[in-house]
UniProtKB/TrEMBL annotation:
Superkingdom field: Bacteria
Single GO term (MF): oxidoreductase activity, acting on paired donors, with oxidation of a pair of donors resulting in the reduction of molecular oxygen to two molecules of water
Location of the Fatty acid desaturase domain: 62-328
Region called Disordered, residue ranges: 348-368
GO process annotations (BP): lipid metabolic process
InterPro entries: FA_desaturase_dom (IPR005804), Fatty_acid_desaturase (IPR012171)
Signal peptide: none
Example of a GO cellular component annotation carried by this entry: membrane
Name by which UniProt lists this protein: Acyl-CoA desaturase
Pfam family, one: FA_desaturase
Length: 368
């Protein structure tokens, strides 16, 4: 590793890794009933909101309340419950309802497909160009090291459309269309993945746009619109949180060469340099699935996310100790940073723009 090695000496990287390992060991040793109670309470709240939202659809004057309850239910299901349970954060409980391999979420993306593309590919190869397919999701230019093509002039449009249909984008991401276009994969190779997609999408569409609308009889059009609005709210929220955790200014990317044979300490270092946090209150963190603590999540993806706020200050202090950046800021600031980057990188490179938005590969240290 070149750029990463320039950050710290080998001895510092080793010590840095030991300090991160110590945090992990301490939290794992402390896991217990409080963590189980927390996630079960979130699940109860999510289910209660879903029932309330479905019931309120029968009363047209309560339509805004019905949509709000259903939207919050879907957000909790996807962010604080589904994402975190499927990461294996509660496998230690041996509770089948909290099993990462058995959980299925309220989303058109099949859990099995997502576990491979997200848990394995993204979290193993975080921000490694040509390895981490979450960099641009195969449709966006989100890093200056990605070669510019006239296609990317539509960058802001593609990102906006992706935000509106985000759950569908997550689902289609597993088809790896970009690899098919490059001839690295054939359409036939996607047969198994496509089968799972079609079955899951059929269930979701049938539930939200056929079954529940029909159950409300003459109010079916209102219910249909309410379900669509709740799904839209969930899509926009999930897109905002995820993009703000991965793509604001100063989040770095890496090459396969510089991450080859990396040590545990170097892996931890890559997670910190390739992530960003979002500041906010307790409810905000819950609604984000604690992905507002994306740095801590990338460091410890299988630790219950409710623990991230507890260790964030310690992680930040360690970063300051070693002169490492700790990228954090409010949602509006991080979101504006992402939008600005998408617009800049849509345009063909020029010396002026390259100086304003230098490649993050092998970047020099920045102040925390």
């Amino acid at each position: 590793m070149t750029g990463l090695q320039d950050r710290l000496t080998p001895a510092q990287i080793e010590e840095f890794g030991r300090e991160m390992d110590a945090i992990r060991r301490r939290i794992v040793a402390d896991l217990g009933a409080q963590d189980v109670d927390y996630i079960q309470n979130v699940i109860k709240t999510q289910r209660g909101l879903e029932v309330a939202g479905r019931a309120l659809m029968y009363f047209p004057p309560a339509w805004p309340a019905a949509v709000t309850a259903l939207a919050v239910s879907k957000i909790l299901d996807n962010m604080e419950i589904g994402h975190n349970v499927m990461h294996g954060q509660y496998d230690w409980t041996r509770d089948p309802a909290l099993s990462s391999q058995k959980f299925e979420w309220d989303n058109v993306a099949p859990a099995e497909n997502w576990r491979h593309s997200h848990n394995y590919v993204h979290h193993t190869y975080t921000n490694i160009l040509d390895k981490d397919r979450d960099i641009g999701y195969g449709i966006l230019r989100i890093d200056p090291a990605q070669k510019w093509h006239p296609y990317y002039l539509g960058n802001p449009v593609y990102a906006t459309l992706l935000a509106f249909i985000f759950q569908w984008g997550v689902m289609l991401h597993d088809l790896e269309f970009d690899r098919i276009v490059r001839g690295e994969r054939t359409w036939a190779d996607t047969k198994d993945v496509r089968g799972k997609m079609l079955r899951k999408a059929a269930r979701q569409v049938g539930k939200d746009y056929v079954l529940f609308p029909l159950l409300t009889g003459p109010l079916a059009p209102l219910t249909f619109a309410g379900n669509a609005t709740a799904n839209l709210a969930r899509n926009l929220w999930a897109f905002s949180i995820i993009f703000c955790g991965h793509f604001p200014a100063d989040v770095e990317s890496f090459t396969e060469e510089e991450t080859e044979n990396e040590s545990r300490g170097q892996w931890y270092l890559r997670q910190i340099l390739g992530s960003a946090n979002i500041t906010g209150g307790k409810l905000f963190h819950i609604m984000s699935g604690n992905l507002s603590h994306q740095i801590e999540h990338h460091l410890f993806p299988d630790i219950p996310a409710r623990r991230y706020p507890q260790i964030a200050a310690e992680v930040r202090a360690i970063c300051e100790k070693y002169g490492l950046p700790y990228n954090t800021g409010p949602l509006h600031k991080q979101l504006f940073s992402v939008a600005k980057k998408l617009v800049k990188l849509a345009l063909p490179p020029t010396p002026q723009r390259e100086s304003e938005e230098p490649s993050t590969l092998g970047a020099e240290p920045k102040a925390a």
